[in-house]
């Protein structure tokens, strides 16, 4: 039986899996659909190492109970092209605003590198998820620069009185601080000394009273009441300030997700394993 007949891909080039040999094939139906769409965007097949890394991520995320909370999500690594990297795991494809990102900004193992002017519009509004049931995350594989404020994902506090959900870095005066908000417009959760770490940065709210955050494999929390979320899309590599990108980042991101509340620790495990496996495969 041929490989193409064993795998439910719609495109012949997606079924190739060069270098398959005796290695296991992906089995998760949602992973197969994603790989099929990635291959269509790339115009060529997906290597077995990348395919099995993606398959493991889908299975792990489901087993850990976080997959259903992903409503807009991209793996910004693994694909052969920038177009393939912008194929969504779930949800709408992001908009590469003004075609700011080009192929030279993309690394298959590290992800997409910002230049301080380019950003993605996720297509998911801050109020698409419930006020008290929300998360944002990014996987940083290369840290931002120094001396400024950088948005990694979300909306802007300047949209008050509405609540924002945001992850950003404030390195003015070498502060090296990560700041988080989750549908609130007053105090941020500030974590000093972590603004140049790599790995998963995440924020999640599951009730009206407060929210949780994660950076550098460490959990944090803040008691801070929620506010009605702003009806503007979350940007990636920037903050959406009422339709205008602000604090545009120059770091490298390999993953982002937006959606409902989840375990940030479990998401960290699944995403870190994914990015590590892609790096090993390539």
Task: Label this structure with key terms.
18 strands, alpha+beta, globular, 282 residues, 2 domains, 9-stranded antiparallel beta sheet, 20% helix
Structure explained in plain terms:
It contains 5 helices and 18 strands. The two termini are about 30 Å apart. By secondary structure, it is an alpha+beta fold. A hairpin with a 6-residue loop joins β9 and β10. It folds into 2 domains: about 1-65, no CATH class; about 70-260, Jelly Rolls (Sandwich), CATH 2.60.120.
Mind sketching the topology for me?
Blueprint: H1 3-6, H2 29-42, H3 48-63, E1 70-75, H4 82-85, E2 88-90, E3 95-96, E4 106-107, E5 111-113, E6 120-125, E7 134-142, E8 149-154, E9 164-170, E10 177-184, E11 189-192, E12 199-205, E13 210-215, E14 218-223, E15 233-236, E16 239-241, E17 244-246, E18 252-259, H5 264-281
Antiparallel strand pairs: 1-2, 1-18, 3-6, 4-5, 5-18, 6-15, 7-12, 7-18, 8-9, 8-15, 9-10, 10-11, 12-13, 13-14, 16-17
What's this, in brief?
It is built from five helices and 18 strands. It is an alpha+beta fold and 282 residues long. Strands 1, 2, 4, 5, 7, 12, 13, 14 and 18 form a nine-stranded antiparallel sheet that branches.
């Amino acid at each position: 039986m041929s490989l193409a007949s064993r795998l439910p891909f719609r495109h012949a080039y997606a079924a190739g899996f060069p270098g398959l040999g005796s290695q296991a094939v992906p089995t998760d139906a949602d992973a197969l659909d994603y790989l099929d769409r990635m291959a269509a965007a790339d115009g060529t097949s997906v290597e077995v190492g990348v395919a099995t890394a993606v398959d493991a991520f889908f299975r792990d995320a489901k087993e850990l109970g976080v997959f259903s909370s992903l409503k807009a999500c991209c793996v910004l690594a693994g694909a052969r092209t920038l177009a393939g990297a912008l194929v969504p795991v779930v949800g709408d494809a992001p908009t590469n605003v003004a075609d700011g990102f080009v192929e030279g900004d993309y690394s298959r193992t590290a992800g997409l590198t910002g230049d301080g002017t380019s950003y993605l519009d996720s297509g998911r509004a801050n109020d698409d998820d419930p006020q008290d049931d929300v998360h944002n995350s990014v996987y940083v594989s290369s840290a931002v620069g120094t001396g400024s404020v950088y948005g990694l994902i979300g909306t802007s506090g300047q949209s008050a009185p509405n609540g924002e959900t945001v992850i950003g870095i404030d390195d003015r005066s070498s502060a090296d601080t990560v700041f988080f908000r989750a549908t609130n417009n007053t105090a941020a959760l500030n974590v000093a000394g972590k603004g140049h770490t790599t790995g998963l940065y995440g924020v999640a709210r599951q009730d009206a009273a407060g929210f949780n955050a994660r950076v550098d494999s460490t959990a944090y929390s803040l008691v801070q009441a929620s506010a009605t979320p702003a009806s503007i899309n979350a940007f990636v590599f920037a903050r959406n300030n009422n339709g205008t990108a602000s604090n545009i980042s120059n770091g490298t991101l390999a993953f982002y997700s937006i959606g409902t509340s989840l375990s940030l620790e479990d998401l960290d495990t699944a995403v870190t394993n994914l990015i590590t496996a892609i790096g090993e495969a390539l």
